[in-house]
Amino acid sequence: MDLVRLIYTSTITEQFEVEDIARILKVARVKNKALNVTGLLSFNRQFFLQCLEGTRQEVNQIYHKIATDPRHKKPEIISYEVISYKEFDSWNMGYLQNTASLRELFYQHTKSINFDPYNMNGERALALLMDIRDEIKRAETQ
């Protein structure tokens, strides 16, 4: 069965509440584990940038739920590709809070203080998400 990687972005809606990020992560971690889907979520209080990895059927199913979630608007797929291995296989859903280190990574990859993932291509988005993954791993070992 082919594995795929989907990277998308979306914007939060007026219905989004601060507590929603914890709710999203809790549900995603349980459901993704059951479906053997891995990935990483990045959020800067305006935009979501997320990677999902798994079988095409499972990843598509999750993305369609996200795209119709009232907390998201303007969902846009940045990249969708068949992969031979998962980059985010350690997490059912990794997450790095909106910290100075995350803002620095955003700046390094976009050269702008105003992070806007809609302007990223798939290669740059994946590179950013992999750097976020590495930052989470560094923080976990400290």
UniProtKB/TrEMBL annotation:
Coiled coil (residue ranges): none
Domain of life of the source: Bacteria
InterPro entries: Acylphosphatase-like_dom_sf (IPR036046), BLUF_domain (IPR007024)
Pfam families linked: BLUF
PROSITE patterns per record: BLUF
Gene3D superfamilies in UniProt: 3.30.70.100
SMART domains: BLUF
Protein name listed in UniProt: BLUF domain-containing protein
